[in-house]
Amino acid sequence: MLQDKKVIALGERDGISGPAIAACVEAAGGTVVFVATECFV
Amino acid sequence: MDLQSQEAILRLSETHGPANLLVLIGAPDPEAAEISAETVVLGDPAYAGALAGAQLGLDVYHVLEDAVRQDVPDDVWEAQIGVMADILEADALGAAVAGMREQKPT
User: Fold this and answer.
1) What is the tens place of the pLDDT at every residue in B64-82?
2) N or C, fewer C-beta in 10 Å, chain B?
3) CA distance B80 to B45
4) Which residues of A touch B58 (CB under 8 A)?
5) What angle do CA B73, A39, B26 make, to 5 degrees?
6) What ipTM, to 2 d.p.?
7) Mind telling me how many Å the CA of A26 is from chain B's nearest CA?
8) How confident is the model at residue A39 (pLDDT cuts 50, 70, 90)?
9) How many domains does chain B have?
10) Does A18 touch chain B (CB under 8 A)?
């Protein structure tokens, strides 16, 4: 599913961070085009 | 969702085309996950950011959904996600995001 996809990684501070999502995507062959770690309040 | 993120997503959608993008959410609770998913599918429900009224219909998943998990090598998953996969309620998170995914405009 992630292979060759352009992925937006919208992480969250209290959940899974953006860089952690991005690392998973890259390992699965996807391309990360945006990374953020938000703080939902 | 942060206003800067909304602006970036709108710009990426214009650059790459909505059909070529996939959004992965890492929110810790179903409510937050649903709001993030709604923002990239139907537009910003708070009408505060660049995605207000923008029905981009982006493909969106929570990172803990099985469809994502099975694509990631085990060692990378353990290192990056690890115990969070056990702490967070993956089924409820996935259901919240899937509910919005199904409302994608046709």
Assistant:
1) 999 999 999 999 999 999 9
2) C
3) 30
4) 8
5) 25
6) 0.96
7) 9
8) confident
9) 1
10) yes
